[in-house]
């Protein structure tokens, strides 16, 4: 019978070969990585030895020129896409693109030393698109003010309305804007303000007003042209009322069609049309007839009482 003997060297070789077989049979440990990019979450199963760049490639993520990423505990990788921000230094604004996680890192990336300077809105803030980043000297501060932007009034001609009439089609809407102001406190205690820029946050909307353009009015004598319309309070009188002498200011005998006005509003001798009364001539005045008041001469007391007191339109004729 043959006997076989294993030396120490042969035993070691056997163990090594067994180890190789185990490596082939047992897969390398894997665990998931979570990639957050462009509003999406991508789960990637990766060997533990793969690099972050390798994980991103396997997730189909391509980094742009100014993009970056941060790695958080738990195999979380956040991709930060570059955004435009406004860097304001010594009052000069420059647009830069940054994908850094903080304002201070964005400044360091472009080689700006921030020692001894204040940073607005904060060194540890995450840059967002359109952000203003201001470098300030000691003693300087920055504030944001919200100011109103008044709306404009736009008049639109409307041939369906009489001259002098108007109607609001759309009420205006006041806009607003953010103004970035740099404040410097002087030795005497006064504060100097410097406008660093402003952004409209709400556009104003114009107020739209329809303006009448029709300058003719229908009367019992047909259409007549007028130059102006005045809203007035009308009363009635007769030539026999107490205090009346039957003669108008311009020397005419008081009768229907002659009316009393304030000559500072309607000059004497002006031709008028009064709806519900007819054609008229401004021929008289009265102590109580001041401003937008008109007194219509009637032929009888009953007619005057029936007319009473009314708010009317008075047409100034050509």
Q: How would you describe this structure in keywords?
A:
318 residues, mainly beta, elongated, 6-stranded mixed β-barrel, 4-stranded mixed sheet, 12% helix
Characterization of this structure:
- This protein has about 325 residues and is mainly beta.
- Helix content is about 10%, strand content about 50%.
- A hairpin with a 3-residue loop joins strand 3 and strand 4.
- The longest helix has 18 residues, at about 10-25.
- About 15% of the residues are buried.
- Residues about 1-25 have low confidence and may be disordered.
Mean pLDDT: 86
End-to-end separation in angstroms reads 147 Å
Q: Report strand %.
A: over 45%
Q: Count every helix, treating DSSP H or I runs of 4 or more residues as helices.
A: 4
Would you tell me the structural class of the helices and strands?
A: mainly beta
Report the major sheet.
Answer: 6 strands, mixed, barrel
Low-confidence residue ranges: 1-27
**Overall helicity:** 10-25%
């Amino acid at each position: 019978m043959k006997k076989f003997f294993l030396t120490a060297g042969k035993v070691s070789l056997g163990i090594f070969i067994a180890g190789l077989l185990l490596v082939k049979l047992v897969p390398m440990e894997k665990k998931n990585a979570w990639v957050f990019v462009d509003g999406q979450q991508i789960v990637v199963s990766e060997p533990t030895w793969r690099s972050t760049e390798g994980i991103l490639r396997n997730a189909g993520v391509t980094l742009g020129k100014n993009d970056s990423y941060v790695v958080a505990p738990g195999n979380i990788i956040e991709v930060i896409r570059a955004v435009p921000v406004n860097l304001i230094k010594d009052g000069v604004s420059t647009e830069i693109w940054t994908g850094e996680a903080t304002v201070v890192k964005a400044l360091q990336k472009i080689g700006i030393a921030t020692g001894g300077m204040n940073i607005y809105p904060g060194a540890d803030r995450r840059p967002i698109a359109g952000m203003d980043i201001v470098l300030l000297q000691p003693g300087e501060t920055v504030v944001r003010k919200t100011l109103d932007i008044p709306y404009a009034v736009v008049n639109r001609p409307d041939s369906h309305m009489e001259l002098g009439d108007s109607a609001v089609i759309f009420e205006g809407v006041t806009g607003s804007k953010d103004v970035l102001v740099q404040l410097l406190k002087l030795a005497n205690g006064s504060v100097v303000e410097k406008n660093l820029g402003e952004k409209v946050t709400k556009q104003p909307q114009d107020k739209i007003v329809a303006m009448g353009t029709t300058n003719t009015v229908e009367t019992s004598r047909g259409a007549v042209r007028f130059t102006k319309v005045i809203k007035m309070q009308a009363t009635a009188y007769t030539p026999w009322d107490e205090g009346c002498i039957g003669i108008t200011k311009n020397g005419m005998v008081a009768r229907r069609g002659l009316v009393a006005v304030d000559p500072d509003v309607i000059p004497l001798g002006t031709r008028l049309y009064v709806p519900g009364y007819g054609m008229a001539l401004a021929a008289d005045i009265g102590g109580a007839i001041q401003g937008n008041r008109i007194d219509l001469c009637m032929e009888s007391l009953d007619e005057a009482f029936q007319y009473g007191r009314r708010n009317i339109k008075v047409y100034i004729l050509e």
